[in-house]
Amino acid sequence: MKISGRNKLQATVKDVVKGAVMAKVVMDYKGDTLVSMITIDSVTDLDLKPGDKVTALVKSTEMLVMK
């Protein structure tokens, strides 16, 4: 898969907090905490859970999660 984002951070999911529509994904990146808000559908599609290895894609206005 090719993607335009150049800031790719290999991280580990620490927690997934689901709300009604959105979920907060908390990740560890080399001892630092990254947080991303993504849809519940994306959490389901990616089957995100604590301990998963993911790639956090950082753009100037948002952070995306890729697994």
Q: How would you sum up this structure, described in words?
A:
This protein is mainly beta. The protein has one domain (7-66): Beta Barrel (OB fold (Dihydrolipoamide Acetyltransferase, E2P)). The protein has one helix spanning 40-46, and strands at 7-18, 22-29, 32-39, 53-58, 63-66. The radius of gyration is 11 Å and the shape is globular. The mean pLDDT is 91.
Write the layout of secondary structure elements.
Elements: E1 7-18, E2 22-29, E3 32-39, H1 40-46, E4 53-58, E5 63-66
Antiparallel strand pairs: 1-2, 1-4, 2-3, 4-5
Outline:
The chain has 1 helix and 5 strands. It is mainly β and 67 residues long. Strands 3-2-1-4-5 form a 5-stranded antiparallel sheet.
State the secondary-structure class: mainly beta
Distance between the termini: 11 Å
Helix proportion range = 10-25%
Q: Could you tell me the radius of gyration in angstroms?
A: 11 Å
Give the helix tally: 1
> So, the CATH homologous superfamily?
RNA polymerase II/Efflux pump adaptor protein, barrel-sandwich hybrid domain
- The CATH level-2 architecture is identified as Beta Barrel
| Share of β-strand residues | over 45%
In the CATH hierarchy, the third-tier topology is known as OB fold (Dihydrolipoamide Acetyltransferase, E2P)
How many domains, as an integer?
Answer: 1
Biggest pleated sheet: 5 strands, antiparallel
**Order of strands in the sheet with most strands:** 3-2-1-4-5
What are the secondary-structure elements, in order, as H or E?
Answer: EEEHEE
